[in-house]
Amino acid sequence: MITQEELNHLVEIAKPTARKGQVASYIPALAKADAHDLAAAVYREDGTLISAGQDEKPFTLQSVVKVLCLALAIMDRGTDYVFARVGMEPTGDPFNSIGKLETRKPAKPLNPMINAGALAVTNMLHGATVQEKLGRLLAFVHDLAGNVSIVFNETVASSENKTSYLNRSLCYFMKQHDIITEDVDETIDFYTKMCAIEVNCRDLARIGAVLANDGNDPESDRKIIPGQIVRILKTFMVTCGMYNASGEFAMRVGMPAKSGVSGAILGTVPAGGGIGIYGPALDEKGNSVAGVKLMELLSVQYGLSIFA
Ligand code: DON
Description:
Layout: H1 4-14, E1 39-43, E2 49-53, E3 59-60, H2 65-77, H3 79-85, H4 99-103, H5 115-122, H6 130-145, H7 154-162, H8 165-176, H9 184-195, E4 198-199, H10 201-212, H11 227-240, H12 246-252, E5 257-259, E6 264-269, E7 273-278, H13 289-302
Antiparallel strand pairs: 1-2, 1-7, 3-4, 5-6, 6-7
Helix pairs in contact: 1-13, 2-3, 2-11, 5-8, 6-9, 7-9, 8-9
Bound molecules: 6-diazenyl-5-OXO-L-norleucine.
């Protein structure tokens, strides 16, 4: 089991690689992040949580929320409903690509981890209003993280909403093809707010531990997500979690993981542990450079690849 000293050490080794990346700027509010930050938390199999670096620093979930939104959508609607509207195949295209929507018949997004798929999934959550859907999703995040103080960051949400031209295009395209049924502005309103849910790396590691524990709260053992849904989530994390770098990540790290453009990475360790990382300098595919490096160091050092 990893010790506090070992985690401190690995964070120090991974940190300089952040120089090779850049913070996301297409969402203006994210451009204010400090590119040199690197924070990591590990929820260990014995139920203890350790963390290193800027571990109290809040960051938004961004695409990491797609895993949680999918879980709730399947719990609300069942797998048949969800996968009639969104596919299960990885894509070699960037996370915000519109290309495949036009060339594939029917115009169903390839998977729920790319923006098109996640936008379709946000439409599926039960709730008559954006507020009701967001309230349900936040309550779910509170359960997963064991932290009822988690809220969304209004500045980041409105910054993204004002500049969501491409995501709006994806929505209008899917609305034309009946994949999206709700109002596009409301879909974008909910989507940008859920992407702006703010956590720190310790919260994220706790969420990873729930996934690693088959959907059970690691402290109380209460079931939060049914086991067969957790299996679906982890499979998507392996095949699509790091976008068009998922293949290379599977080779180098081999852990179910999900990244976000804030620099977040959520990871699960088969034996019951969770990993939460924040490193806002990204590579050209939108994944945290130092975060991926740190995941690789952890995987190699502790034999965490599920393929080993
Ligand atoms: O829709 C977007 O572009 C962002 N809210 C989330 C994208 C994202 O995190 C992609 N991740 N690497």
